[in-house]
Structures are given as structure tokens and as C-alpha cells.
């Protein structure tokens, strides 16, 4: 069981995921939450990570740090995505074992599942088929991380658990168009077009793929719930169990932003996986459900973007 006095290290505490988990932990009374910036601690350095664990001795670790990006970033730098994520995971997981961390939560991504996985995707679809080519390097690294947590649990009894959040969005997302995911890219493009009175906005693909989106504060609430309630071997999907086409998502974003121009679809660009919906039966049976629906979440995300443009990683 977690105690309110536990020292909780959130790796990646300033990113979209990590910052939301820090907010959720503090809202629930966990005051002893620590983090380090990349400048303060290079997680790809085994020496630096071990020195940090030696000095700080965290009770609980949340591994939310990762090199992430959209289709373009994954396609152009697969070696970096594989190498850096494997380094981060190996260093943090092994140090968590060596320094007797009482609980670790590893965050994966639903891109770990096979490209043609059954829909909705159950947890046991893992490693049952080929991956989506456009993010294969990232997926392979994440699969290695969650399997490593499982192996440390099996061999040593370490209480290392994993979760698989669906597509996330919200405060502190990456709005740099060269590396952003679909939701922040849409918000940024339509906001810029609105400000400049551009007659049209170009979006990638056909708009037909189906995607599931979860507001990041809901994800963080689920993560803290799992830290407090779950000790199982199998990873747990975190999502809404609801999906929307990219074309319909674009209409939601357009309405929230207040952009009145035309959306043009560049069908020469890749769509990615045709459908990706998580089966959240396991999480629902444990007693957790999402609270923020898509329209409300997009409004919250856009409000944050407007108020924090300097922090939105443009």
C-alpha cells in the first residue's frame, strides 16, 4: 500500500503525462513528490541514474519519461526512438530493483499492440502480430519495458506494474508540428489559421482512421488509482472505450477553436493504423472510469494552449 508520506519519483515530471500525474498525486495528498529535469538528470546515463537513486532513495517510481513523437518523428528517427527509450527504461527499472523501490508504475502506449489487433484491443493481444510500421521502433522499446517489469516481478517479486494509456491530450502537450501528435497538431494548425485568417487548413491522410482520446488528467487519475489498488502481473489498458474518426475529431477541434475556413485532406500522407480502440473492461472491473468527454476535453486543452503559448513547445 502507498502511504501519503512516501517519496514518489515521477520520471518525466514536466511532460504531458508526468505533469498530470504530479498534479493528481498532490491533489490526493501525496506531498513528497520529486522530479528532475533532463538537464539535472540524464536518464539515458546509467551512472547518473544510479547516483540519483543512491542519493534520493525513492519509495515509489512512476516511469513516464520517454522520447515521444508523431508519425513523422517516428519515421525519420527510429534508431533514436529505440535506443533512448531502451536506455531510459533499463536504467530506471534496474535501479528501482537494486534500491528496493516498493512499487513502480511503467507507462507504455497502445501503439505496442499489433497493427491488425482485434478491436477493441484486449491486453492479451500483445505480441500476437506485426506492429504498425510508422512507430515500430518506439513500440518495440515500450514492449521491452513492460516485459522487463513483468520479469522482475516473476523472478524477484518486485511490485512493478504497467499500464497502457490510449491517445492522450491536454496541458503541457507538444504543439511543435514537426513532432506533435494528431490532437495538438490540429489545435495548433486551426488556431494559427484562425489568427492569420487563412482560408484553409491542411490535415494529413484521409480522415477515416478511428481513434480513442483520453484527457490527460483522467489518465493521471487512473494511474494513481492503479498505484493504490493494483498489483497484478498483466498490464492494464487506460482509455475511454469510445472512438471517433479523425475527420469528426477535426470538426470538434474546428468548432472549439472557432475556425471558419476549409479543411483540406492531404491523402498523399500516411493514415497510420486504421483503428485503435482499447478494451477497458479490466480497468472498469477494477472500479475506474473516465470522467471528461471529448468535447469538454478539447475545450480544456484549447483554453490551456491559449493561456500558455510560451509553454506549449511550439
Please tag this protein with its features.
single chain; 314 residues; alpha/beta; 6-stranded parallel sheet; 3-stranded mixed sheet; 10 helices; 42% helix; 15% strand
The low-pLDDT segments are none
Number of helices: 10
Radius of gyration, taken over Cα atoms and rounded to an integer in Å: 19 Å
First-last Cα distance:
40 Å
Major β-sheet, in short?
Answer: 6 strands, parallel
Outline:
Helix content is 42%, strand content 15%. It is an alpha/beta fold and 314 residues long.
Task: Give a structural overview.
The protein has helices spanning 16-27, 46-56, 71-76, 78-98, 136-156, 182-196, 216-229, 246-257, 281-286, 294-307; strands at 8-11, 33-34, 60-63, 103-107, 160-165, 167-169, 200-204, 210-211, 213-215, 236-238, 244-245, 262-266, 275-276. With 314 residues, it is of the alpha/beta class. The chain has a six-stranded parallel β-sheet with strand order 2-1-3-4-5-10, sandwiched between helices. β4, α5 (136-156) and β5 form a beta-alpha-beta unit. α6 (182-196) crosses α8 (246-257). The chain starts with 7 loop residues before the first strand and ends in a 7-residue tail after the last helix.
Secondary structure layout plus pairing:
Blueprint: E1 8-11, H1 16-27, E2 33-34, H2 46-56, E3 60-63, H3 71-76, H4 78-98, E4 103-107, H5 136-156, E5 160-165, E6 167-169, H6 182-196, E7 200-204, E8 210-211, E9 213-215, H7 216-229, E10 236-238, E11 244-245, H8 246-257, E12 262-266, E13 275-276, H9 281-286, H10 294-307
Parallel strand pairs: 1-2, 1-3, 3-4, 4-5, 5-10, 6-9, 7-12, 8-13
Antiparallel strand pairs: 8-11
Amino acid at each position: 500500500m502507498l502511504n501519503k508520506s512516501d517519496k514518489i519519483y515521477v520520471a518525466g515530471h514536466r511532460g504531458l503525462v508526468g505533469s498530470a500525474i504530479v498534479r493528481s498525486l498532490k491533489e490526493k495528498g501525496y506531498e513528497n513528490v520529486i522530479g528532475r529535469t533532463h538537464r539535472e538528470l540524464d536518464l539515458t546515463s546509467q551512472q547518473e541514474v544510479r547516483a540519483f537513486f543512491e542519493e534520493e532513495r525513492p519509495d515509489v517510481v512512476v516511469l513516464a519519461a520517454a522520447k515521444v513523437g508523431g508519425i513523422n518523428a517516428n519515421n525519420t528517427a527510429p534508431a533514436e526512438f529505440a535506443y533512448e527509450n531502451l536506455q531510459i527504461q533499463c536504467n530506471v527499472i534496474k535501479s528501482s530493483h537494486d534500491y528496493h523501490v516498493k512499487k513502480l508504475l511503467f507507462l507504455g502506449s497502445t501503439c505496442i499492440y499489433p497493427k491488425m489487433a482485434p478491436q477493441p484491443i484486449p491486453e492479451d493481444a500483445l505480441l500476437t502480430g506485426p506492429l504498425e510500421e510508422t512507430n515500430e521502433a518506439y513500440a518495440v522499446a515500450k514492449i521491452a519495458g513492460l516485459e522487463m517489469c513483468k520479469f522482475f516481478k516473476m523472478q524477484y517479486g518486485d511490485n512493478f506494474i504497467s499500464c497502457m494509456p490510449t491517445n492522450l491530450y491536454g496541458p503541457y502537450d507538444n504543439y511543435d508540428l514537426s513532432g506533435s501528435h494528431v490532437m495538438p497538431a490540429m489545435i495548433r494548425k486551426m488556431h494559427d489559421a484562425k489568427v492569420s485568417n487563412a482560408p484553409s487548413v491542411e490535415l494529413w491522410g484521409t480522415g477515416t482512421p478511428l481513434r480513442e482520446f483520453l484527457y490527460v488528467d483522467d489518465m493521471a487519475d487512473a494511474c494513481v488509482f492503479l498505484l493504490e489498488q493494483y498489483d497484478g502481473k498483466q498490464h492494464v489498458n487506460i482509455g475511454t472505450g469510445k472512438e471517433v474518426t479523425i475527420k469528426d475529431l477535426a470538426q470538434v477541434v474546428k468548432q472549439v477553436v472557432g475556425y471558419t475556413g476549409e479543411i483540406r485532406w492531404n491523402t498523399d500522407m500516411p493514415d497510420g493504423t486504421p483503428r485503435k480502440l482499447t478494451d477497458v473492461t479490466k480497468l472498469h472491473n477494477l472500479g475506474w472510469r473516465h470522467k471528461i468527454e471529448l468535447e469538454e476535453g478539447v475545450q480544456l486543452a484549447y483554453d490551456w494552449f491559449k493561456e500558455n503559448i510560451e509553454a506549449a513547445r511550439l
